[in-house]
Amino acid sequence: MELAKKILKILEHDAKISPKSIATMLDTEEEKVLQVLSYLEKEKFILGYNAVVNWDRFGENGVEAMIDVKVTPAREVGFNGVAERISRFPEVTSVYLMSGAYDLSIVVTAETLKDIALFVSHKLSTLDEVQSTTTHFILKRYKQDNFIFEKPQEDRRLVVSP
């Protein structure tokens, strides 16, 4: 399992890296890496491979929001039932169980602010378990999944000395 953890750490940093390169980095055989990857995928340790895309560079005007949701947990299933139900909405990209004032935090994407407002008012808040929501619109993304979206700006301030 130690080899599997090392492979996962490498893939977490760069999902495009080849099994041959992983084998070289870990001083093991490529066939062994392929076996471990197959096992990790089959057993759902690896759920998929994603690219982190800077859509702003393409001029995409989509909207993303984080919505805090206070819910009434269902008997026997707790928060899982409502979280699974919310997860099935196509607008929802992530669902997290949280500590603090709200129970769930969800990430939603849509074309416009109005689409997100309609999602909250017509889909999310109509669920019986949902008590309240707070919506936070994402204005700018600086870093995601360890990738920085813009180069750090050069410090242009003048040096002031006494």
Nutshell version of this structure?
The protein has helices at residues 2-13, 19-26, 30-42, 80-87, 113-124, and strands at 63-71, 92-97, 104-110, 130-137, 143-144, 147-148. It is an alpha+beta fold and 162 residues long.
Write the CATH homologous superfamily of the largest domain. Lrp/AsnC effector binding domain/regulation of amino acid metabolism (RAM) domain
CATH topology of the largest domain: Alpha-Beta Plaits
- Multimerization status: single chain
Give the strand line-up of the largest sheet.
2-3-1-4
Radius of gyration: 21 Å
Termini separation comes to 59 Å
Largest sheet: 4 strands, antiparallel
Provide structural commentary.
- The chain is of the alpha+beta class.
- It folds into two domains: about 1-40, Arc Repressor Mutant, subunit A (Orthogonal Bundle); about 55-140, Lrp/AsnC effector binding domain/regulation of amino acid metabolism (RAM) domain (Alpha-Beta Plaits, 2-Layer Sandwich), CATH 3.30.70.920.
- It contains five helices and six strands, in the order αααβαββαβββ.
- The chain has helices at about 1-15, 20-25, 30-40, 80-85, 115-125, and strands at about 65-70, 90-95, 105-110, 130-135, 145, 145-150.
- Helix 2 packs across helix 3 (about 30-40).
- It is extended.
